[in-house]
From TrEMBL, chain B:
<dbReference type="InterPro" id="IPR005769">
    <property type="entry name" value="PhnE/PtxC"/>
</dbReference>
<feature type="transmembrane region" description="Helical">
    <location>
        <begin position="225"/>
        <end position="245"/>
    </location>
</feature>
<feature type="transmembrane region" description="Helical">
    <location>
        <begin position="144"/>
        <end position="168"/>
    </location>
</feature>
<feature type="compositionally biased region" description="Polar residues">
    <location>
        <begin position="1"/>
        <end position="18"/>
    </location>
</feature>
<dbReference type="InterPro" id="IPR000515">
    <property type="entry name" value="MetI-like"/>
</dbReference>
<feature type="transmembrane region" description="Helical">
    <location>
        <begin position="29"/>
        <end position="48"/>
    </location>
</feature>
<feature type="transmembrane region" description="Helical">
    <location>
        <begin position="96"/>
        <end position="116"/>
    </location>
</feature>
<keyword id="KW-1133">Transmembrane helix</keyword>
<feature type="domain" description="ABC transmembrane type-1">
    <location>
        <begin position="92"/>
        <end position="275"/>
    </location>
</feature>
<comment type="similarity">
    <text>Belongs to the binding-protein-dependent transport system permease family.</text>
</comment>
<dbReference type="GO" id="GO:0005886">
    <property type="term" value="C:plasma membrane"/>
</dbReference>
<keyword id="KW-0812">Transmembrane</keyword>
<dbReference type="Pfam" id="PF00528">
    <property type="entry name" value="BPD_transp_1"/>
</dbReference>
<keyword id="KW-0472">Membrane</keyword>
<feature type="transmembrane region" description="Helical">
    <location>
        <begin position="257"/>
        <end position="278"/>
    </location>
</feature>
<dbReference type="GO" id="GO:0015416">
    <property type="term" value="F:ABC-type phosphonate transporter activity"/>
</dbReference>
<dbReference type="InterPro" id="IPR035906">
    <property type="entry name" value="MetI-like_sf"/>
</dbReference>
Amino acid sequence: MSRTRTQTASEARFERAVRPEKPFNWFRLIVTVAVVGGFLGAAVSVDARWDRLPDAPGELWNIARLMFTDLDLADLPQALESMWESVAIAWLGTMIAAVLSFPLAFLAAQNISGRGSVVVTRQLLNIPRAIPEIIFAVALIPIFGLGPLAGTIAIGLSSTGTIGKLSAEIIEGCDRGPVEAADAAGGSKAQRVRWAVIPQVMPEIIAFWLYRFEINIRASAVLGVVGAGGIGTMLQQNIEFRNWGTAGMALIVVVLVTILIDTISGAVRRRIIRGPKSGHDKIILDPEKVILARPSR
Amino acid sequence: MSQTDPHPTGGTASSTTAPVERPKKPRPSLFMAGGFVVLVALTIATGADWRYGVGFSITDIWDGLTRPNAPMRGLGEIDFAALTGARARDGFLETLLMALVSTISGALVALPLALFNSKLGAPNRVAYAAIKLFNNIIRSIPDLLWALLFVAAVGIGALPGMLALFFFSIGVVTKLTSDTIDGINHGPVEAARASGASHVQMLRTAVLPQVLPAYTSFSMYCFELNLRASAVLGFVGAGGIGSVIDFYRSHGQWDRVWGVVVGFLIVVIVVERISMALRRRLL
């Protein structure tokens, strides 16, 4: 029987076959040792009460149970009103950042501005990017008093860095063609920017403003912890005084409103970048991914 | 100017350009017009000084800034000596260690979650939907709120801070990595399935090698985020450099607050530079 003969032959070949040896990867070994060592070293040397760790899941479960079994619909209007204040802070802060960052982005773009302006503006944009909103907020509260105004300005200032940097990168990535056409038609520098650059980059920049608005909602939801307005105050006080029912209602409102606004804003961003046709083409819509995909400077 | 143009160029410019009509500007689309109306309405509603607005006014801002105030005065006389003190040194070290522990542990948990959070990697639709919902909820809770919850659960200190950053990292890394999985090359996946690999074997040999560089890059990016976030955890009692800033602030020592903030700024920017250089090599 030829069939069994080929079968046994192939089996014999299979028996003889040796798996190619895996090349030894020094790099992988070093990285693994560094990560594991770093983790263990840091975990041991950090001054934390690790003995409380086993309690954490139980305690968290306990809190979750207390929060969601003790819900009172009477808390809903207050939660919604505070959340609206958070959304207002995020929206207005994003608008402030958009207005401030728009001219800065052109000053920081290499294909528009000179070297000196690019270096100085980029450094200027780096500072608010590295400082969290809450730190801006605590510094602004003694100036503007407790309340949403301090939070709004904190969000506005700290978003200016990110929006400015990303807008500058979008401007740098624009198509040269229209700029050359405007140049050939005798357009001045300002006219070139107005008619050849801005129409190209505007959809992407506006989409990023919206994306930043989504991030800012998360930030403004906790600004109230230091007294800068929004639902954070309600959350902080009710968690601190163990009013779990009210805190749970506030938490539910934060999560649902955040997801709802993410969904709406994501759809609007998709429409801005893709245009009116609803195609199935897959494009990257997460600007964070774009930054990560092409890390620069 | 066309070549058949009988009129001489220059001179009576208005008469030569008259027959050339500018094309009509297209009307703005319904989407643009509607979007603009919503934008203006939202800005006015949120900015106005009424029950549901923030009460934004340029004069208030100007008055606030021109009035003498402690933070601005402190900005003029930044005290860098605060950085060399034991309090600040311990704070920085704690922040760094907290970010390290929580990023590594969070990223480790995020990898299987990311696999299950994509249509390709999830074993079935139910698991996919459940993981997606779980991840959406985790991501919509801000880092400081996690810290509030964990301070209530296990008391103040570095532990609740690390637990907060742990959950925050899970959200970030899972989201970014699972988006990458959606975009990978399906060739190796088909090859693995054709050679009879089980679901887990397929993930291990066809999906994981493709997303590992991006995953590592996202984990490093998450470390930067955690470092930045750990500066504020101290405001709710969850340890790190934030507690030092909060301490100086509550004592009104703004010169020292700014000194620590400048030091923090330098740490963040240096870490970001290093991480960016590494990430550029990965991608």
